[in-house]
Amino acid sequence: MPKNLLIIVPVLNEVDNIYPLLEKISKYLKNKKKHVLFVDDNSSDGTRKKIYQAQKKYKNIHLIKRKEKLGIGSAHKRALSWGFKNEYDMIITMDCDGTHNPIYIPKMLKLLDAKSCQIVSTNRFLSKNSLEDWKLWRKILTTFRHKLIQFLLNIKYDSSGAFRAYLVNEINIKDIFLAKDNGYSFFWESIYLLSKRYHIKEIPIKLPGRLTGSSKMRFKDIIFALTYLLKIYFKK
Questions:
Q1: What proportion of the chain, given as a percentage, has pLDDT over 70?
Q2: In DSSP terms, which residues pair with 164 in a beta bridge?
Q3: What domains sit in the chain, N to C, each tagged with a CATH number?
Q4: What is the pLDDT of residues 176-206, one digit of tens each?
């Protein structure tokens, strides 16, 4: 019998964010068919130990242990593959840094339950002042990336975010794997490709700044993402 819901959370050095996140989403884990899957890329700060401790309190928590940092896109692919293989009805992907608020989960699931779409994606640009507490440089960079992707790929979505929901039995996992990038570009590349095959709906969200820990994105990731975007643009 298929399981109902899997919440996927990739982690890398998020020791201070494991319990705060689980406390927020615990209301969605009371049913035995609702699970959380962490994917840890060999954190060095005790994140994995924290997850082991959480498994004693929350019985529906799973962990994929990876030997090194292989990229956020790679982590999503690995976890989605696990979720599809284990026959969950719906899968939600989200970050661990506190920026993705679980209060939006019921609305995402409601859209999937109604089968009005196959994918629900969140949009940071539909709500006024959604990024109001972000640092100015990051707000400018994120908005510029959003507009550039929209212009070059001719898509309307906020495609670079990881807070999404998938209706498993109406999606072919191979279509997700058409996105070849294993880093941050996986998100916009996958939405771009999936939008050609599936109905995607967006919901507006407010996205606060990270409260603890630090972003894993480096300057070279930004340069690579821009280069990769231009490569996809000239290929399309």
A1: 94
A2: 93, 121
A3: 3-235 (3.90.550.10)
A4: 999 999 999 999 999 999 999 999 999 999 9
pLDDT in tens, 11-49: 999 999 999 999 999 887 777 688 999 999 999 999 999
- Distance (Å, rounded) from C-alpha 60 to C-alpha 27? 12
Q: What is the 3-state secondary structure (H, E, C) of the chain?
A: CCEEEEEEEEECCCCCCHHHHHHHHHHHCCCCCEEEEEEECCCCCCHHHHHHHHHHHCCCEEEEECCCCCCHHHHHHHHHHHHHHCCEEEEEECCCCCCCCHHHHHHHHHHHHCCCCCEEEEECCCCCCCCCCCCHHHHHHHHHHHHHHHHHHCCCCCCCCCCEEEEHHHCCHHHHCCCCCCCCHHHHHHHHHHCCCCCEEEEECCCCCCCCCCCCCCHHHHHHHHHHHHHHHHHC
**Alpha carbon distance, N-terminus to C-terminus of the chain:** 40
Amino acid 1: pLDDT? 45
Question: In whole angstroms, how far apart are CA 130 and each of 72, 108, 184, 207?
Answer: 24, 18, 21, 6
Determine the Cα–Cα distance for residues 103 and 148; give it in Å rounded to an integer: 29
Mean pLDDT of 213-236: 76
Q: Is 70 a residue whose pLDDT tops 50?
A: yes
